[in-house]
């Protein structure tokens, strides 16, 4: 297959190098479980949707996706937490790393979110954000100068000198994952709580994979990505809604919900009420 | 690629359905780690041998092999212990299983080995072994008759009826593994201590894979399969041999070896002395 | 801790040998992620519920449960598919296996389910089921006699002789799993689609573990076990229900659902409407 | 158990928080495989050594070690590559990171090694190395100042601001691993090719674990850590040595060795000849 290069962030890259398998191969593997008894009794599409709906995940492990990625180290550190993937990353012990640092766009230099302890809020003071960006650029350049001097003036080993490089330094990797675990990775990393930079990468990865597994991807979108899970407590509230009541925060707290859970539930309800109207 | 079917045992099959990657792809992935600094400074062959020798295993994880296997359940139960592989197996809950049982050849019906607590000895009394084989055939047929009656006379569910089927019933699976873990699997299952039936399967699998990764396979044979590890205690004895001494069992026991370790060491030594003479 | 033995099925056993960690330890591990900034700002209970609700699974991996299990081989074969667990199983190559076979109760000898391709229906003809049970008992005894003869009359090796033993032969194992993956195992194996015999084992295992991790278990029940996931298509139907409509099968099919999905959705709806009335 | 804190590097810490299991537990798990047939026929010590020698690794997976670690991010990035371990790490998205940076001792600020592409050579020019250290200290302080300004002057979110922090920033984690995989980790990270900083951490970890599994650790040292593997080609050379010849580089090249392999072989030989003399 022809690899298509997608650019992300300022210097990042997402390249789908190769895929192994196809929707047909996944369906074929699933049919081994059912043997002749149920063979060909339904289409690949229906079978793949059945598998996804019932979380019969093993046939999706029969396919693989292989990427070349160029991302900031902060992103790579989140990526590497997905332990079923295989990866090879550039080593700062073997190679001198080039001066490529991630400098966020101004609109990504907003303040700490007040709602999300791990995230950023939209930019409110553009001048401040512009100064912030400038400050990151200076810091990155200064760090790279220090790295360069350590290597070429002080003659320190690469494995030690790299210690002064910033976490926004770009790294490169080969990353391979089976389709089931790739979907799991996407579910976590395309989520609104995930960091913006990894969301951008995940979206580009998914975009590249979709044409190769159209039926599996559609099934995943319908049954996983765009599904919604109501907790046992949510279901109690939902049952009241179905009986025409409007649950209050007190109702929610009586059955053990936190204020945040209640708010999230009510938001989901509003969203549902607004669907397709 | 064209899948070639290999027959093993009496009804078994080994079919390499597909491979992902190549020696070149593995080398390419490894070169990511070294980046431009060392790029193309050595051939793929030299690089793959270097990686294998130094147990830099992650690039070999970038390749995959996918098999269709038909093997006795006893073999499948050993296979499934390799946890990094992906598999889909026929389910006796969904499908009625056909009457295909593994009946060993007479020359595999020898007595318990006196040296190997887990293995068989060569046949010494052929009439006895022939009777044994006949007895297994009868037992298998009787078990399948019982299964058939449970399904078709007593109308018991498949998931319960299968409980009377023997462990030598053939099962079928799709089995996928990355090359590094496939090599690890082979190292354990091509070993003389492994059960004959899984050794036969492993050998057929390796035979099918070799043409697709010739350089990696050769490196694996030289640095892993046909290598020999001397323990710290073996090395003490070896150092004496190099100084012209012949270590005795007492010498071995003094430094903490068991009789079996000593015997194994001396056997390895004789084998080495006999090499290429 | 004192291990308590639970008996399951006819000869089965579930013994929780040991646990590693506690609710406190899990909360403590989670707090590492948040460091001093948010330390002690909420109770262990609230933190564990937050983690479970948001699928922050890694802190639950810090705890382990270790079991001794004695179960039919059919059950062990399902158990071994959970690849993050560690296990040691009795080997029929080393040891002669005792005559212990699982013979289902009569009420488990019902016919194939017409709704569930993989399951059994309730017993309708008790005489037939009684005959089925008797037939399984005979088949098991005959198989064990054959095994015994192969070992003691024909002097065949254990690893070959075991091939005639039925899949309902009991096996024994040590099985260890981290709490997150144990929960995942339970979710799949306590499900009504799981085979009765493994459901019985899973329930006994959960029952033994609950007192050791009361907060984590309660959170898991509320946010996972007793939660319900509505697919994207279900949500479309639900939005209509919230607007006072009653979706028909045609409505469901227009948006891409199968008849089975529609039926399941409507059943869930009825169940919700009936909650707490 | 009482956790003992070990200090490593300048601000690093290694604390063994808890262990699960013991030598006895491992032996007990192994005996399940052999059942009554071979029970108690040998001591725990002999059994554990047998298991280690024959790479019967699964019983060692029944034990776990749990650490609190404080290490530079460069070390954490190597640690996280061991995928069977469980970990929770401080998140720079949730928490403001303190000003703790790894500044190597002067004797670790030597030049790039000429023999080892990934390592450092001993310090030859102490003044240069002292300047290098000073330069790293300045760079670290400047980077932290930038981080602090981004947070407290420019009001940038934590997840973005951390991008300017150096790779030598200390991070904290809970890290749990089963004993088999812990040994595998140690084998790789106590190796002379591993980076000095991770070797120091691995040694401190092993030191803390040894008293809890004395028999398993000793077996590992004898059969794995201090064992030596001769490749198939090394064995050909060794057979010649045993016949009184001294293999030359040409001999080695004829059978396919590189110069480096030959040199390593001859070095091992000299070392053996020198043993215990």
Question: Any overview of this molecule?
Answer:
In chain A, α1 crosses α2 and α2 runs parallel beside α8. The first copy, chain A, contains 11 helices and 6 strands. In chain A, a hairpin with a 3-residue loop joins β1 and β2. The first copy, chain A, is α+β, with helices and mostly antiparallel strands. In chain A, 48% of the residues lie in helices and 14% in strands. β6 of chain B pairs antiparallel with β6 of chain D.
Summarize this entry quickly.
With 277 residues, chain A is an alpha+beta fold. The first copy, chain A, is built from eleven helices and six strands.
Q: What proportion of the residues of chain A is helical, as a percent range?
A: 40-55%
Write the element-wise H/E pattern of chain A from the N-terminal end onward.
EEHHEHEHHEHHHEHHH
What's the oligomerization state? homotetramer
CATH architecture type of the largest domain in chain A: 2-Layer Sandwich
* Class from helix and strand fractions of chain A: alpha+beta
The total count of strands of chain A amounts to 6
Spatial separation of the terminal alpha carbons of chain A: 43 Å
Largest interface: A-D, 56 and 56 residues
Mean pLDDT of chain A, rounded to whole units?
A: 93
Q: Cα-atom Rg of chain A, whole angstroms?
A: 24 Å
Number of domains of chain A: 3
Strand order of the largest sheet of chain A: 1-2-3-5-4
Largest sheet of chain A: 5 strands, antiparallel
Report the principal-axis shape of chain A. flat
CATH class of the largest domain in chain A: Alpha Beta
Count every helix of chain A, treating DSSP H or I runs of 4 or more residues as helices. Answer: 11
Report the portion of residues of chain A in β strands.
5-15%
- Ranges of chain A with pLDDT <50 over ≥5 residues? none
């Amino acid at each position: 297959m022809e690899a298509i290069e997608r650019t992300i962030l300022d210097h990042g890259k997402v390249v789908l190098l190769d895929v192994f398998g196809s929707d047909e191969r996944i369906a074929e593997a699933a049919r081994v479980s059912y043997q002749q008894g149920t063979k060909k009794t339904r289409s690949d599409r229906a079978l793949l949707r059945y598998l996804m709906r019932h979380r019969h995940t093993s046939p999706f492990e029969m396919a693989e996706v292989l990427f070349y990625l160029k991302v900031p180290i902060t992103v790579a550190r989140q990526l590497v937490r997905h332990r079923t993937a295989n990866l090879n990353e550039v080593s700062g012990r073997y190679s001198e790393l080039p001066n490529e640092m991630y400098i966020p766009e101004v609109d990504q230099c907003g303040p700490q979110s007040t709602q999300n302890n791990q995230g950023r809020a939209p930019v409110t003071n553009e001048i401040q954000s512009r100064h912030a960006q400038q400050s990151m650029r200076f810091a990155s350049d200064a760090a790279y100068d220090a790295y360069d001097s350590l290597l070429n003036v002080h003659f320190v080993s690469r494995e030690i000198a790299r210690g002064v490089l910033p976490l926004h330094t770009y790294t490169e990797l080969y990353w391979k994952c089976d389709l089931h675990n790739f979907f799991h990775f996407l579910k976590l990393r395309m989520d609104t709580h995930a960091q913006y930079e990894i969301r951008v990468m995940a979206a580009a990865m998914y975009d590249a994979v979709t044409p190769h597994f159209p039926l599996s991807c559609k099934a995943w979108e319908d049954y996983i990505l765009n599904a919604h899970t109501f907790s046992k407590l949510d279901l109690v509230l939902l049952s009241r809604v179905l009986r025409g009541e409007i649950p209050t925060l007190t109702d929610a707290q009586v059955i053990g919900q936190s204020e945040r859970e209640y708010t999230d539930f009510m938001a989901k309800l509003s969203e549902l009420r607004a669907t397709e109207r």
